[in-house]
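Progress note, sequence design subtask.
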């Protein structure tokens, strides 16, 4: 039995902070701590004062966290 393919992820989509936390399996307080320390990905603030992170920015930020096995 074949599972349907997931549609390709649009690199121009926007993530909420909650989606980022869910994807990384971290708490919101951990994200807020990273943000205070300047360790979170860049994001935009909407006129509604909510934040969004572009998928492209998120992926680039995650790439900076990769460590090589030693």
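Output:
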């Amino acid at each position: 039995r074949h599972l349907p393919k997931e549609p390709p992820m649009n690199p121009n989509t926007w993530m909420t902070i909650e989606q980022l936390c869910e994807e990384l399996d971290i708490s919101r307080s951990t994200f807020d701590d990273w943000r205070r320390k300047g360790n979170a990905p860049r994001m935009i603030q909407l006129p509604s004062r909510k934040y969004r992170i572009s998928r492209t920015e998120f992926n680039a930020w995650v790439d900076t966290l990769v460590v090589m096995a030693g």
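The two ends are 40 Å apart (CA to CA). Work on this subtask will continue into the next period as scheduled.
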